[in-house]
Amino acid sequence: MRRLESVIIPQLEADRSANCYWWDGKWYTRGNLLELAASCEDTLRRAGFGKGQRLVVMLRNSPLIPALSLAVWKLGGIFCPLNEKAGLESLTGTLDLIRPFAVIAEHDIPELSRLWPFITCDLDSTSLPDFSGRLQPEEPDDYAIIFATSGTTGLPKAVPLTHENLLSNTEATRAMIPSISSDDVFLTVLPNFHSFGYTVTIILPLTIGGRLAIAPSFLPPAATIRALTEAKVDVMFVVPAIMSFLLMSVEKGKLQPEVLSRIRVICTGGDKLNPNLHKMALKLLGRDIMEGYGLTETSPVICVNHDCETQKTGSIGPVLPGYEYRIRTREGKDTGDKEGVLWVKGPSVTPGYLHAPEITAERFDADGWLNTGDYVKAETHDGEEYIYILDRVTDIIIVGGFNVYPQEVEKILAEHPAVHAAVVVGVPHEINGEIPKAYVQLNDGADATDRDIIRYAKEHLAHFKVPRSVEFVEEFPLSGTGKILRRVLRERARS
User: Is the pLDDT of residue 24 over 90?
Assistant: First the structure.
């Protein structure tokens, strides 16, 4: 069985004096990371941590994240990053599910520290304070990490990923984007409690000998802009909300365009990419940005475009090597059609949800195929099949028996000269079952009325797809990973 530490540590030991990560204005070596990991390992060992135990970590990005990961794996344990701001109810339910040996956090949370061994430390700490943990029943020794995810239900679930899951996903991602190399500096700003940030901006560079430019979080953005500028980032994986902010900063003169235009690979994931961002990037940077797609359950990348030159606008790219995929009906039947629900199978897919066989049975069929929950279409270009996300199955609006894909409507609305972005949700209707409602964010200084937006939609869409009402918003509700919370807008529209 391959393990992550057996791949990463030899990369670090090959040249201990080489730069490894940029943090708070300074470069640190591979030897520095190995020393920090060894210090963490010694403290965990003295605390009694060992095989199959879970260490929950609620820290923003810092050198401690890769160091603690290596320390946990060397002792045969499982790394469990959580969002400290997820809310007490969510954290309590997730900790009860994971049953940690101990919790490491930036701040004490009395309601949790009364229940679990709790250690606080600063992001700049070079060692952990001594503590005593609490042994729990062992989980399988091939688990490397456990992520918490609420999906579309809002209820906590835990997704274990194995060492092989993560290794296969990083290898396939690198194969899909051939311009990525071991000489690159990767921006590490996405939350480590999300698989996109953890796998692609921490594990991927470490497994190939790349370097990290670490910012604690995106907000406030000053640390990210400093990392981009001083560390001379080559590869940037971000969510669309971050890309939008950076491009708007360039447009307003708050960020020099050269800081972004010099970055060789810019790829978004975690949420749909607003078509206007392609136009903004081409206008402001003289180059385009790529798009990819994945799920926590798939470690996470499923699809990604190879590069800006061959990408198909609106597509999330071809499926990664190693995956099999099928497009099925909503009932899970194979039809051979090019449009339907995407199901995947492969070495990057989770073994199943932690201690939740009923949820696993809902998402996996008897042959191990995972239902992604996304409605897609496939098109062949240049001998490869490119996948286009039409919408989440749960987000599709059914108007009088006709399917309305919110992303299609949003794309049209975003083409209105006054509109920066739009989100469309379904609201109940006595006759049609549901009707679309649009939440619209206008461009700075732009002006439009709800009638203007609806009139524009009528000119470009079939009548049943046109939003019946429009509400203007300053900003959209976002999750901790920067993803628009459609569930919140749907509840708001129906209240």
Answer: yes
Pairing of strands 54-58, 102-105: parallel
DSSP string, 336-389: --SEEEEEEESTTS-S--TT-HHHHHHHB-TTS-EEEEEEEEEEEETTEEEEEE
**pLDDT band at 400, cuts 50/70/90?**
confident
What is the pLDDT, as a whole number, of residue 467?
Answer: 96
DSSP state of 201: I
- The CATH fold assigned to 396-494 is GMP Synthetase; Chain A, domain 3 (3.30.300)
Q: What is the CATH number of domain 1-391?
A: 3.40.50.12780
Q: Give residue 152's pLDDT.
A: 45
Q: Which single residue is written with the structure tokens 């497994």?
A: 207
Domain residue ranges of the chain, discontinuous segments joined by +: 1-391, 396-494
- Same topology, domains 1-391 and 396-494? Answer is no
Mean pLDDT, the chain, as a whole number? Answer: 94
Quote the CA–CA distance of 381 and 18 in Å, as a whole number: 42
Q: Closest Cα partner for 395 from 377, 376, 369, 379?
A: 376
Which residues are CB-contacts of 364 (< 8 A; sequence separation ≥ 6)? 352, 370, 371
Taking only the tens place, the pLDDT of each residue in 427-453 is 998 787 889 999 999 999 999 999 999
User: What is the torsional sign of CA 75, 77, 81, 82?
Assistant: negative
